[in-house]
Design goal:
Length: 286
Amino acid sequence: MKTFSAVPDMRSEVRTQKARGKTVGLVPTMGYLHEGHLSLIRGSIRQMDYTVASVFVNPAQFAPNEDLQQYPRDMKRDSDLLEKEGVNSLFAPGDDQMYPQGFGTYVEVVDMQHKLCGRSRPAHFRGVCTVVLKLFNIIEPDAAFFGQKDAQQAIIIRKMVRDLNLDVKIEVMPIVRDEQGLALSSRNAYLSPELKKQALSLSASLKEAQNMIESGERTAEKIIRRMKKIIGSEPSARIDYVEVVDTDNLDPLKKIDDQALIAVAVFFEKVRLIDNFMFESKEKKQ
Ligand code: PAF
């Protein structure tokens, strides 16, 4: 595996590979890799000729009161894992490469960036879209791989790609969970064993929502009420949101028809976790 930190070197490597006729897959990450990231890497390696993984803790997507400084980092371990998976190149730029002195251009998906997570993290998706577009411009991938766990992020990035006519296919891979059902996240590293136990209420509430929908319940309010009861019974849980929204525009749904995103964000003490379940009726799947 080759490692690049400078934009021109990374760009020239990818262009060489493309000139050889190789298709290029990009897996953007903020590092501290877990099985969820590795499933994206494996997806890219399966589908593409050449895989680039990026590791960059993007300051633009953190608010001043958030965990940028504490965000877990371990470049040596990440690099070893990526090499073992068979990644071709690691792009690990410094802040000065991505946000040089005088940087002042941002990308906003205006109609969706303030919904769901965007309400409590108003500048988050602007930071995500800006860094993802920069990575797309540097690496010029044919396809980029994202996780369903960050459902709003994936929907917003798809919208950015459509709106800005970007020539990159967005692949969204299923949520990876631990044996007990907790969705994998680098932020799980902050959880004490007790908080981890309480955090299982997220997947439990989503499972209950799925059961309710599959048994014919279609009223969003009833589903949300039941989910809030399950999560709210944990002493350290502080609900940011529990919502049932349209999968295209993230608008709240009153009644579920043939598709819905059921999404939750909850603080366990200072740790904010998200999880979701995407419902599609049998008719819609066909
Ligand atoms: O999902 C993440 O880890 C980040 O939001 C991403 C896409 C790498 C952009 O910094």
